[in-house]
Design goal:
The chain has about 140 residues and is mainly alpha-helical. Helix content is about 25%, strand content about 5%. This is LEM3 (Ligand-effect modulator 3) family protein / CDC50 family protein.
Length: about 140
């Protein structure tokens, strides 16, 4: 058994050394300096008039071979948690005339001024729309 698994282990070790992993935590870096507590962060996120574009530049010092994978790491985010799964209103999604119904949408059911959120609920609020671009020096690298 050892004769079989030693080459597999060596191949795995060599392949793992070629992996380049870069971690960039940007959740707080993209918030304005006055958003120091939880309520201020929520108010910033819910304010439609605020531009929320955030540009981050990360310099990679090692060579990376294609394909390059980008992924999210979310801590304390449980999509199988009962509160998350139940936080939606199916009637609101099925029938346009019931758009103002926000039953079962806690905690994301109304805006700060009391208007209903459409679609409401945690599921509708968990959309990640980050975009990435890659460049080597001044040359942009096309992503596929």
């Amino acid at each position: 058994m050892g004769v079989i698994f030693i080459p597999i282990r060596v191949a795995s070790l060599l392949a793992s050394r070629a992996v380049v992993e870069v971690v960039d935590r940007y959740d707080n870096a993209c918030l304005p300096s006055n958003a120091t507590n939880k309520d201020a962060k929520i108010a910033y996120i819910q304010n439609r008039d605020t531009n929320k574009n955030c540009t981050r530049t990360i310099t990679i010092t090692k060579d990376m071979n294609q394909p390059i994978y980008v992924y999210y790491q979310l801590d304390n985010f449980y999509q199988n948690h009962r509160r998350y799964v139940k936080s939606r209103n199916d009637q609101q999604l099925r029938d346009e005339s019931k758009a103002n119904e926000t039953d079962y949408c806690d905690p994301e059911k109304t805006t700060a001024d009391g208007k209903p959120i459409v679609p409401c609920g945690l599921i509708a609020w968990s959309l990640f729309n980050d975009t990435y671009s890659f460049a080597r020096g001044s040359e942009n690298i096309n992503s596929q």
